[in-house]
Amino acid sequence: MTEPILFYFDFSSPYGFFASRDIDALAKRHGRIVTWKPILLGAVFKHTGIKPLTTIPLKADYTQRDLAREARRLDVDFRLPQAFPFASIAAARAFYWLWDQDPEKAKSLAQALFEHAFIAGQDISKPHAVLEVGRTLGLATSDLEVALSDPAVKDRLRQEVEAAIAAGVFGSPFVLVDGEPFWGYDRFPRIQAWLETGGW
Question: What is the pTM assigned to this prediction?
Fold first, then answer.
């Protein structure tokens, strides 16, 4: 049986947001499913020594322009939250807690969190914001609130981030197709070609 495509992303990544809108449809066209895996770029950057693009001179200006250009191409009403980049720990914990119960609902939560951040331009860094987004989806927010402080959920996220780094993940989005790595939303056409041809 074909292994799932692994989709790594950080909730604070605008390119991860763009990728999240396409990844499942791309996979489905080739009879594949996707395992979504939120990570924490802060932990990854400590390992690699890289800084967020929006904090690097020259690259920051280019990134702002590129994000706006990509949003126009996708016809997305895109905006960055005022606090950016932001901590995504609470969002990632919520995702893994829900993923273990219902992966499709977890994907819906991820999309809603992404849209709250990058379409509404709202802060999702705090637990109360994640709870509010969960409430709009009909989630039991009392259970979710407990989960965000659950040591087992905290440990799950830590293990997922460590496993991602061990697998060579260093950015968002990052996709593994049968072990073949693709970094960046601009690599999605190459992912499609790889799936069409079986690789080269």
Answer: 0.94
